[in-house]
Design goal:
Elements (H helix, E strand, L loop, with lengths): L2 H7 L3 H17 L7 H12 L4 E3 L2 E4 L3 E2 L5 E7 L9 E7 L7 E6 L8 E6 L5 E9 L4 E10 L8
Length: 157
């Protein structure tokens, strides 16, 4: 190999230091996109107004540990007879760490027969997911579950 070819292939010390410093700065700037707890409260207020949200009647089921936050099994079941006079109108799902705090809404009615929803969700790290059920009488009930996520989803690079 000739000298001019070796020089063309070699990286100068200055170029190497500049590149490593740039990568280090990028690593410091990179942060996961996440809603704050205040954002969850604001999203709940936007959806339900100032109505009181009571704890109970809503059972959220998720695995205790999720190896991958890109697809976490999630289930919500509400204790309701699902009759014309007493049924679930909607179930709203909230996350304090995902980019958008209002993750999902499921609209139900008495013909649903059972107030249960099962799906998969993306999770941006370990967190407690809260589900709020709005009943036909206007009352609001909530439940939550926490999952430890080992590989987070919803991260902006």
């Amino acid at each position: 190999m000739r000298t001019d070819e070796r020089q063309a292939l070699s990286i100068s010390r200055r170029s190497l230091i500049t590149g490593v410093a740039g990568l280090g700065t990028l690593a410091l700037i990179r942060s996961p996109a996440a809603a704050a707890p205040e954002d969850v409260i604001a999203a709940q207020r936007a959806l339900f107004g100032d109505r009181e949200i009571q704890t109970g009647r809503v059972m959220v089921t998720m695995p205790p540990i999720a190896e991958n936050g890109f697809s976490v099994p999630f289930e919500v079941e509400v204790d309701s007879p699902m009759t014309e006079d007493d049924h679930v109108v909607q179930i709203a799902v909230f996350s304090p760490r995902n980019p958008l705090p209002d993750m999902a809404r499921f609209h139900l009615g008495p013909r649903a027969g059972r107030a249960r929803v099962a799906t998969r969700i993306r999770m941006s790290g370990t967190q407690a997911i809260t589900a709020v059920a709005e009943m036909s009488d206007g009352s609001l009930w909530s439940g939550s579950a926490e999952t430890v996520v080992t590989l987070a989803a919803c991260i902006i690079l």
